[in-house]
């Protein structure tokens, strides 16, 4: 009995010193890399501000470099000078960074908080942890928006309306990369949803997708930044265009533009954190402390108050409430809402991780023709 | 001596077709805006021809004629398209009226000698037109930015409310955003801290280098000059990548000093070039005279040489300042988020979120540049006048 107590006390003392030591060793500043714009603002509001209230001594610097995160992390690694502490990337980039050893592998149940009901993080996030280095935050989708005043009385309801120049004449905005465009082209060329990646693996399949895109090529404006399509739609330069659903939400609800969503065949993707490999101990300790807080159930649900992306934890979904400024219910604007997700397309990260370089080259060559 | 008689201008064969052409041009622009380019083209040609005919036959006074045309077109524009049409119509009416008298009274020959052939006159006017077009081409993008920065919407779009000059369509909110948003304020503070420091280093080192390299006895002058100028010639992205890896190794990457040094390296060539150019006109016997009278080299430099080459130093410094203030590539590599400058913030802002705040910032920067250049020019003239180098 006595010895048990001694062990317990010993353990408590050790734990106490451990906590103290950890506190003392945490770095005071942290550089977080994200996408800028409304998305970064939602992260600041939902994660960084509340964290700073708890730890006023911490300075958080934001760097809007997620777009070139892979290239920059490679350069930092070569220069031996990692200046970033936490990097927000999409799933495919996280897989690449993990494969190259530039991102740190982690144990979800150790690093992330369990759900309020005690479900361990690994189960709460479930399949969305697509890589050993990836800490998912949100589910977003790439989908189409169209000008309600430029489509006549029959608004588009089907993804293939994008390829129908007779029914919906005018310019379209598509992303300047093969991902999503090739899949949509094959879907509208009669390929069944389940066979898309099998077909796209073959030379003929790739030619077939490009041939379908050829039919609208001279009516396409290619975008490379998420802000382009909202600007083009607001200008009336395009009838319809693809972009991230949160951008369209902001265009429709916050900027009151005559635009509506075409949710058909929306492509889900993930956005989340990676920790760069090789961080010094003090900085790593600070990042871990921040992540434990910023990825818990309530914080992920809070982010949905500012932007219409679905939280990656299943325990967060019931907590999603109203928009912080507009006061509208956010649930119906989530890509995962049943009314919006009637027909979704599952984007195959691992397939693209293998084929991306090859298809990028082919796509760019096709664009230049 | 026989008085030169003004050549008669053929109204029907010369003025009418040209005026029809000008009218067609405007008609095409207006027609395109209303989705009927060819109807606009035809109507415009007709309007131009009729206008010149009426003005030449019935209104001899150019001033009255131009005023009448302006009012007439403005009223027509107002009837068709409201306030926006009023302004557009007035501009078109003024230009067409003026053009009509310019052609009909033979004033288009004003700048050419009397013996010039029609082809020479044509070339003279075409040349003037090309100059004006180049001017327009350079200025138009900058001028477009200014009204757009007062947009009430969050897009780079001329809204219908803006085009009809509705006060509702305009707002100062993007300026407010610039002055209240911590991101922009931080970027402004960084730029204001980095650019002067980089300029100071560039001017000091660049002037010294230029003076040294202008001495005929310095060995390998051309080679040294080429190396010092190279940051201007090597593509910026190459310098930036090189600096990134070098600065990372020595711990300067992501520091204030690192960015200042990088910008100074980019600014030095400008100072060297402008100061070397001024030194060509500097009489070296003045320094010998000063030495003869007992001045040491430092005194000679500050009392004799420096005042004379000051215009070159100032304009070099100005170039160095603008290089640092405008630079985005190198700072993206060498800086970290803590050294985010205005151009960096504009660059990411444009990519991630097309917000007219960028246009508001651009407008402010344009105004500051104009003020700065005017100030420098006034100072330069004043100093030249004081030294009796220029008559005015």
Automatic annotation (TrEMBL), chain A:
This protein is called Spermidine/putrescine ABC transporter substrate-binding protein
Question: What range does the record give for the signal peptide?
Answer: 1-21
Q: What InterPro entries would the database entry show?
A: SBP (IPR006059)
Instruction: Name the species this protein comes from.
Output: Hoeflea olei
Q: What is the lineage of its organism?
A: Bacteria, Pseudomonadati, Pseudomonadota, Alphaproteobacteria, Hyphomicrobiales
Q: Which UniProt keywords apply?
A: Periplasm, Signal
| Source superkingdom | Bacteria
From TrEMBL, chain B:
| Family matches, as InterPro entries | MetI-like, MetI-like_sf
Which Gene Ontology terms describe the biological processes this protein takes part in?
transmembrane transport
The signal peptide, as residue positions, is none
In terms of CDD domains, this protein maps to:
TM_PBP2
Superkingdom to which the source organism belongs: Bacteria
Q: Which Pfam families does UniProt cross-reference here? A: BPD_transp_1
Keyword Cell membrane appears in the UniProt entry: yes
Its keywords, alphabetically, are: Cell inner membrane, Cell membrane, Membrane, Transmembrane, Transmembrane helix, Transport
Record GO cellular component, one term = plasma membrane
Membrane-spanning parts? 12-30, 36-56, 63-80, 86-104, 125-150, 194-213, 225-247, 259-282, 308-334, 354-379
Q: Where in the cell is it found?
A: Cell inner membrane; Cell membrane
- Its main localization is membrane
Does the keyword section mention Transcription? no
Identify its membrane topology class.
Multi-pass membrane protein
All copies of domain ABC transmembrane type-1, residue ranges: 188-376
Q: Which family does it belong to?
A: Belongs to the binding-protein-dependent transport system permease family.
**Protein name per the record:** Polyamine ABC transporter permease
């Amino acid at each position: 009995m006595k010895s048990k107590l001694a062990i317990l006390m010993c353990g408590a003392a050790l734990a106490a010193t451990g906590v103290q030591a950890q506190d003392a060793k945490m770095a005071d500043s942290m550089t977080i890399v994200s996408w800028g714009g409304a998305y970064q603002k939602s992260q600041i509001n939902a994660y960084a501000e509340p964290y700073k209230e708890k730890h006023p001594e911490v300075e958080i610097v934001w760097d809007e470099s997620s777009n070139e995160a892979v290239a920059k992390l490679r350069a930092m690694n070569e220069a031996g000078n990692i200046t970033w502490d936490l990097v927000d990337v999409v799933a495919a980039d996280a897989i690449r960074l993990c494969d190259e050893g530039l991102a740190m592998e982690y144990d979800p149940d150790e690093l992330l908080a369990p759900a309020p009901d005690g479900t361990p993080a690994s189960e709460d996030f479930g399949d969305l942890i697509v890589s050993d280095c990836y800490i998912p935050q949100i589910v977003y989708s790439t989908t189409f928006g169209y000008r309600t005043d430029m489509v006549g009385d029959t608004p588009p309801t089907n993804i293939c309306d994008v390829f129908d120049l007779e029914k919906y004449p005018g310019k379209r905005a598509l992303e300047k990369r093969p991902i999503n465009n090739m899949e949509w082209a094959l879907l509208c060329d009669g390929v069944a949803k389940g066979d898309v990646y099998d077909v796209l693996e073959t030379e003929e399949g790739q030619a077939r997708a490009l041939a379908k895109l050829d039919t609208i090529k001279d009516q396409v404006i290619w975008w490379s930044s998420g802000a382009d399509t909202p600007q083009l739609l607001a200008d009336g330069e395009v009838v319809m265009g693809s972009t991230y659903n949160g951008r369209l939400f902001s265009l429709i609800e916050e900027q009151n533009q005559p635009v509506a969503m075409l949710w058909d065949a929306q492509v889900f993707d993930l956005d989340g954190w990676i920790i760069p490999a090789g961080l010094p101990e003090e900085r790593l300790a600070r990042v871990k402390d921040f992540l434990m807080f910023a990825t818990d159930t309530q914080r992920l649900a809070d982010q949905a108050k500012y932007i219409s992306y679905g939280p990656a934890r299943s325990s967060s979904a019931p907590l999603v409430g109203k928009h912080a400024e507009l006061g509208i219910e956010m649930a119906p604007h989530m890509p995962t809402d049943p009314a919006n997700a009637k027909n979704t397309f599952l984007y195959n990260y691992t397939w693209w991780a293998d084929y991306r370089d090859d298809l990028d080259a082919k796509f760019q060559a096709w664009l230049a023709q | 001596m026989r008085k030169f008689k003004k050549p008669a201008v053929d109204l029907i064969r010369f003025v009418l077709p040209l005026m029809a052409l000008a009218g067609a041009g405007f008609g095409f622009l207006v027609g395109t805006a209303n989705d009927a380019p060819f109807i606009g083209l035809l109507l415009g040609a007709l309007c131009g021809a009729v206008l010149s005919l009426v003005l030449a036959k019935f209104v001899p006074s150019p001033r009255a004629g131009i005023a009448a045309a302006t009012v007439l077109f403005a009223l027509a524009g107002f009837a068709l398209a409201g306030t926006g049409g009023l302004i557009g119509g007035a501009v078109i009416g003024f230009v067409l009226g003026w053009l009509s008298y310019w052609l009909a009274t033979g004033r288009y020959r004003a700048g050419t000698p009397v013996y010039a052939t029609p082809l020479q006159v044509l070339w003279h006017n075409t040349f003037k037109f090309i100059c004006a077009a180049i001017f327009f081409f350079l200025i138009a993008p900058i001028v477009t930015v200014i009204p757009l920065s007062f947009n009430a919407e969050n897009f780079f779009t001329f809204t219908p409310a803006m085009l009809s000059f509705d006060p509702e369509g305009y707002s100062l909110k993007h300026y407010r955003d610039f002055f209240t948003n911590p991101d922009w304020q931080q970027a402004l503070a960084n730029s204001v801290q980095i650019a002067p420091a980089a300029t100071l280093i560039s001017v000091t080192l660049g002037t010294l280098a230029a003076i040294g390299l202008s001495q005929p006895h310095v060995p390998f002058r051309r080679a040294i000059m080429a190396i010092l100028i190279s940051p201007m010639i090597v593509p910026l992205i190459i310098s930036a990548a090189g600096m990134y890896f070098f600065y990372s190794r020595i711990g300067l990457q992501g520091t204030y000093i690192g960015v200042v040094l990088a910008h100074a390296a980019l600014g030095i060539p400008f100072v060297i070039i402008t100061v070397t150019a001024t030194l060509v006109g500097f009489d070296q016997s003045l320094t010998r005279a000063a030495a003869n009278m007992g001045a040491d080299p430092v005194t000679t430099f500050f009392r004799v040489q420096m005042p004379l080459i000051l215009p070159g130093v100032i304009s070099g410094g100005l170039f160095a300042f603008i290089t640092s203030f405008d630079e985005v590539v190198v700072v993206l590599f060498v800086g970290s988020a803590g050294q985010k400058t205005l151009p960096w913030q504009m660059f990411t802002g444009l990519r991630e979120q097309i917000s007219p705040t960028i246009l508001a910032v651009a407008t402010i920067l344009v105004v500051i540049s104009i003020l700065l250049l005017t100030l420098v020019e006034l100072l330069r003239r004043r100093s030249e006048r004081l030294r009796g180098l220029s008559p005015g």
